[in-house]
Write a structure and sequence with these properties.
39% of the residues lie in helices and 35% in strands. It is an alpha+beta fold and 175 residues long. Strands 1, 2, 3, 4, 5, 6 and 7 form a 7-stranded mixed beta sheet that branches. Strand 5 and strand 6 form a beta hairpin. The radius of gyration is 24 Å and the shape is globular.
Length: 175
């Protein structure tokens, strides 16, 4: 029975890898472009993460609390596994002022920030952060987080926050 391909089998074996490389090359180029874009997006969101939590860490100063507020959409939803849900920026900031400012600071756990593009919207960021007592400097709390960032008119804002899996942090234990 003859093969539907008009090349002898020994030539088909040689041609298959070459044909695949020609067919897949455009996809590889797109993947490399996407990787470069992802690197830029990761750098952008990492810088925003640092800025939003720099203001959080100094929010006992009302000017820093205002700066912190500017990173959040007015209708931000904040889901906290032990603290519950807030449905607005005003409610979230009231809790931040009452429970966080001057009491503890936040540190991103190095190497844990992951960023994923969301087409026609912005990005999702997730990672781990630890919390340090402002009084004694001890960092004993660890949690996972997810932030949904929206890019609108060249301005990034957080629209959803999930802070969960709060637990004691043993810095000598594997994460």
């Amino acid at each position: 029975m003859s093969s539907p391909c008009f090349l002898p089998s020994h030539l088909r074996r040689l041609m298959t890898p070459m044909l695949l490389s020609v067919l897949l090359a455009p996809g590889c180029a797109l993947a490399q472009t996407g990787a470069a874009g992802d690197t830029a997006l990761h750098a952008t969101i990492a810088a925003l993460d640092q800025a939003v939590f720099d203001s959080f860490n100094r929010c006992a100063d009302p000017a820093q609390l205002d700066r912190h507020a500017s990173y959040f959409d007015p209708a931000v939803e904040f889901y906290h596994d032990t603290g519950g849900v807030t449905w607005t920026r005003a409610a979230m900031l009231a809790n931040t002022g009452k429970f966080a400012c001057g009491h503890f600071t936040r540190q991103l756990v190095p190497g844990t920030l992951e960023v994923f593009a969301i087409r026609d919207f912005g990005a999702l960021a997730r990672g781990q952060h630890r919390f340090c007592d402002s009084g004694n400097g001890k960092c004993e709390g660890l949690a996972d987080f997810t932030l949904l960032w929206r890019l609108r008119d060249g301005h990034w804002q957080i629209t959803r926050v999930l802070s969960y899996a709060h637990r004691a942090d043993r810095m000598d234990a594997p994460q």
